[in-house]
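Action item from last meeting closed. Structure (234 res):
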């Protein structure tokens, strides 16, 4: 290798600048080579540096999530007596019981729901009031209590049902039953008001009996709220 002696100060300065630039370029090239080698070993890190707006990793959910098997919150109110038409249907007598189906029809403008036992009180012509007991099963309507009790949602015009029944035969040595119930005071579960309806049973040709059991306790009872499809009906 031949070295050229530079005598001119300006030329010597220019040569020095060229040498410094060459060294800098050589150092930059070496750093780039090292960075490329590092990227070869750590691919994920380099990808993250080159793409600041990287896509979400697997398993991340954007927006709202829903737990599998969960249900939406209830959006209907409990049915109140003011928005219900209450009546008796499917009346008759069978196997020592007389009764019918209390019918709760939603006459409001919004859906509502019912669950549990309605409030039912039998009223005689003399004004005697007898609360009906909660039945676990009834011969009339072939209803059986099942847990959990269904929540019946009523759209406007829809109906829910409950069996009301009582023994129609005197018990023990009694020759006849007490005076029958001529009216029923009925309220939906929750006690949101009541309505009074006639206790006449066209299918049995009589008012709802007020017969008692051998121990003198009333036999009149009511089922929990249910749907017509869960009851035996003609």
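Sequence:
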């Amino acid at each position: 290798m031949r070295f050229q002696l530079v005598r001119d100060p300006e030329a010597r300065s220019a040569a020095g600048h060229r040498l410094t630039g060459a060294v800098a370029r050589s150092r930059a090239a070496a750093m780039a080579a090292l960075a490329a080698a590092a990227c070869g070993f750590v691919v994920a890190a380099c990808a993250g540096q080159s793409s600041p707006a990287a896509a979400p990793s697997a398993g991340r959910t954007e927006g709202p999530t829903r737990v599998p098997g969960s249900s939406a919150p209830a959006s209907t109110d409990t049915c109140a007596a003011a928005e219900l038409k209450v009546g008796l249907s499917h009346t008759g007598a069978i196997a020592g019981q007389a009764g019918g189906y209390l019918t709760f029809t939603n006459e409001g403008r919004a859906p509502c729901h019912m669950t549990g036992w309605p409030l039912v009180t039998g009223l005689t012509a003399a004004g005697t009031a007898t609360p009906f007991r909660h039945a676990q099963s009834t011969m009339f309507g072939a209803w059986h209590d099942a847990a959990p009790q269904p929540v019946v949602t009523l759209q406007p015009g829809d109906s829910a049902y409950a069996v009301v029944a009582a023994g129609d035969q005197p018990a023990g040595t009694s020759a006849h039953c007490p005076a029958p119930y001529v009216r029923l005071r009925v309220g939906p579960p929750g006690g949101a008001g009541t309505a009074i309806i006639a206790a006449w049973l066209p299918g049995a040709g009589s008012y709802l009996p007020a017969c008692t059991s051998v121990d003198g306790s009333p036999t009149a009872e009511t089922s929990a709220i249910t749907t017509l499809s869960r009851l035996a009906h003609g």
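Note appended to the action item: Residues 186 and 195 are 5 Å apart (CA to CA).
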